[in-house]
Design a protein that fits this description.
heterodimer; A: 314 residues; alpha+beta; 14-stranded mixed β-sheet
Chain lengths: 314, 187
């Protein structure tokens, strides 16, 4: 066999090249576990950050009424004991989906909304065993302001159903209990309860005023009752005026939206369950917070104009 | 064991001191045996080649004073081993080294050598070409075609996969071929 010339020619390459090749050091192989572990860790961090950040950015306010925490039992006006999930603001009466389980005496009602801070009001064990006593504790007919005629006026609207007027007994601790009640009222009554100079609404799609009343259980009269919020009800949504001095501050969330020289916070439908939500906080953490909930197809500017038309005059 | 400097070994050769061969054996014996075995694939033949290398170095120094003693020794071992390979029976030849030689032959077949071009000229051009390549590629190429290491050995040494080593060699050969054509040494 004859050795090809190029094989001999390579024998004449520079000494430095040969030296370099003999001294070439082993390249440290990258540990694939380190690579994958760091990748997985990064991904986990992203997930955690997203889990924390997304509800803050796109969810509802993270504020809760302090008195709404804890185990809660609900008794309807008709005396039946219920197990419920209740919106912290108790203003979205249009989201009430009552379902009945068992006999006439035991009704389970789920009040659903998109809030991240719902209070889950328990529970059958809580309600069935002591139902008679709870009925006695929670029936406070003297603070139920609306007359039957007022309820009848709005009962035909698609938003409010008569069954949404409930009283809620919440055991915040052993000593203190509160009773909550969503009540549909007229303008004068709403103004009297809310204790702010609210403006009347004469829009065609306006259907009524809803007030959220709260009273300590011991006070079985109207003098101890607080009105936490007032809601203007409309065919396709509602505007809620929340008294932050009574309920605690509302943390503005959503995308900032400047309109008419003011700042609003908008949750667009794609992030808010096909619901347009606009927040307006003219006096910051105190005073009245305005929140509008409307059908996702509603015009943002029109809703804002509506909010501004209902803004309390200083 | 502390190895003495190459310059001192060379001095020993110049002094015609027998310790020169012993020191060479201590310092480069293993490397020489490796080269010889890679080419010949036979321990006895490679050992004979290594011994011939010492004799060759003894005869070359003086008068030669190599700048790089290690590569000087390696070259002698390589040349002697390749010469011995020519006379080995076909069945005794290593398939791996034959593949390497065949691959190299594909870069510049003997019949395509331009006239008046010496092996030294080609060697210089190949050096120039290799200097333009990345260090990894350059070293893999030299380990394969100068030292005749197997693909597996190179892959382990450089922590590459065998297929990566093959790919590197394939692309380097092609580039070298293009380079030699461009330089006018291949007709």
């Amino acid at each position: 066999m004859k050795t090809p010339r190029i094989v001999n020619a390579i024998g004449h390459i520079d000494d430095d090249l040969i030296n370099s090749a003999t001294k070439s050091k082993k390249v440290a192989k990258k540990n694939i576990w380190i690579k994958w572990t760091s990748l997985v860790a990064s991904f986990a961090v992203i997930i955690i950050v997203a889990a924390v950040a997304v509800p803050t950015l796109f969810g509802d306010e993270n504020t809760t009424l302090p008195i709404l925490s804890g185990n809660n039992t609900v008794t309807n006006d008709n005396g039946s004991t219920t197990s419920q999930t209740i919106n912290q603001e108790n203003t979205h009466s249009n989201n009430v989906e009552p379902t009945t389980s068992g006999g006439n005496d035991n009704t389970t009602t789920a009040i659903n909304n998109d809030s991240t801070t719902q209070s889950v009001i328990d529970n059958e064990a809580h309600t069935t065993g002591n139902s008679n006593q709870q009925e006695h504790n929670t029936q406070t007919p003297e603070i139920v302001a609306p007359s039957t005629t007022q309820i009848a006026e709005i009962s035909t609207t698609p938003i409010v159903e008569p069954s949404t007027t409930v009283s809620t007994t919440i055991a915040n601790n052993e000593e203190q209990q509160y009773t909550y009640k969503d009540v549909i009222v007229g303008y004068d009554t709403a103004k009297a309860y809310f204790k702010h100079p609210i403006l009347p609404c004469d829009r065609n799609d306006f259907t009524g005023y809803n007030v959220l009343l709260c009273t300590p259980n011991e006070n079985n009269n109207e003098s101890g009752t607080d009105c936490l919020s007032l809601t203007y009800l409309f065919t396709n949504g509602s505007v809620n005026l929340r008294d932050q001095d009574k309920t605690g501050k509302v943390t503005p969330t959503g995308k900032q939206y400047e309109y008419r020289g003011r700042t609003f916070y908008v949750h667009t439908p794609e992030f808010n369950g096909d619901q347009l939500r606009i927040g307006y906080y003219p006096s910051g953490e105190n005073g009245i917070a305005y929140q509008a909930y409307f059908n996702g197809r509603a015009n943002i500017n029109e809703i804002i104009d509506l909010i501004l038309s209902l803004e309390l005059k200083k | 064991m502390n190895n003495i400097d190459d310059s001192k070994i060379i001095e020993l050769y110049f002094e015609r001191d027998d310790r020169a061969i012993k020191e060479t054996q201590i310092k480069y014996g293993k490397l020489c045996r490796k080269i010889a075995y890679n080419i010949l694939n036979n321990y006895e033949d490679s050992e004979e080649c290594v011994n011939d290398t010492y004799v060759g170095v003894w005869n070359a120094i003086p008068p030669t004073r190599p700048n790089n003693f290690m590569s000087f020794v390696c070259k002698i071992t390589r040349n002697l081993s390749l010469k011995r390979l020519e006379f080995m029976k076909r069945e005794k030849r290593s398939a791996d080294v034959l593949v390497s030689i065949h691959e190299l032959e594909g870069v510049l077949p003997d019949e395509k050598y331009a006239p008046d071009v010496s092996d030294e000229d080609i060697g210089r051009l190949i050096s120039d070409f290799l200097y333009t390549q990345k260090e990894d590629i350059r070293n893999v190429f030299i380990r394969r075609y100068y030292f005749f290491d197997s693909i597996k050995e190179i892959a382990v040494e450089f922590s590459f996969s065998e297929s990566k080593v093959k790919n590197m060699l394939f692309y380097t050969r092609n580039k070298l071929k293009d380079y030699l054509i461009k330089e006018g040494v291949e007709i």
